[in-house]
Request: fold
Amino acid sequence: PFDVYARLEHGGDFKAAAADLRQKGYGGLSAYVSGESDASAEPVAPTGPEDPGLIDPDLLRVPGLISTIADYTEATSPRHCPVFAATGAICFVAHLAGLARCKTVYGDRPNVYTLMLGPSASGKSFAQRTNRKLAQALGIGYSMISNVGSGQGLEDSFINSPKAVLFTLDEMQKFLGAMRGCDRTNGEGISKTLLELYSASNDVYYTRRLSLSNRGRQQTSRPDFFENPQLTVHASGIAEMVFQNLTVDNLTDGLLGRFLLTETDVRGEVNEDGREIPVPLDLLKSASLLIAGQ
Reply:
C-alpha cells in the first residue's frame, strides 16, 4: 500500500513518495503519451481500491460459540470494542478446534493468525485476557504461551501441547523491531518458525537439530518432529508503531500476508455495565464439547 511505502522509503513524507513513484512511471500517463514531461506538475499518487469503510456490525455476529465468547468479553470489559472481542473469540475457537484435531476433507486446519491494530486502551488486551481466563477455566492453560524470545521457544511450546498452541503476542511493533535491531537473529528465527508452522499444520514440522533442551535442572530429549502442529497467533499492536517498524522483508516474506488484520482508530465507548463475572457454564460446556470433538 502507498501508506506503507511512504513510511518505509520516505519517512512518512507522502509528497516525496508520490514524486518518487511518478518519476518511476507510476501515476498519471499524460507526460508519456505526449512525449513531454512537466516538472512543475503536481505528483499523482498511485490509486487503489476504494476504502470499503467500517465493517457492518452484523458481520461480527457469528452464531454459536464465537458470539458467546465475544459477548462475554464485551460484558467484562471496561470499554466496548466488538471487533476485537470477535477477533479474540475467533482465535480461541480456532485453538479449541486444533486441540480437537478438527480438519477439512483436504486436511486443512483452522490455524489462524490474527493482528489487532488500535490505539492504547482500545480493547486489545481485553480479548487476550478473556482467552487466558477461559483457558484456565477449561484446564488447558498449558497450551497457551506468550513472550517467546526465539524460534526454538516456539518449537518447545509443542512439547507441552503437541496438538495445538495459542500464542498471545502483545505489542507486535516490538516483535518487528527485534528484527531490525540488535536482536535480529532471534527476531528472524521467530519469523521463519511462524511461517514454517503455518504451513505444517497439515504436514510434518521438523524441529531444529538440537539433542537436548534444558528445562530447569532436568534435560529432556526434544522430538525430531511434530505431526500436524497447529499454532494460532493472537497478536496486537498500535497501528502507527507497527507501520513504522515494517521493513521490505516483512512485506515480501509472506508472514504479514498470513495475518487476519482487524483495526479500529478510536477508543471504544465506556462500558457502564462492564464488570467481572464468572465464566458462564453454558460457555464452558460448549467449549469442552468442542475440545472433545463433539
Q: What stands out?
A: Confidence is low (pLDDT under 50) at residues 28-37, 215-219. DSSP finds twelve helices and nine strands in the chain. The first helix runs from residue 2 to 10. The first strand starts at residue 113 and ends at 117.
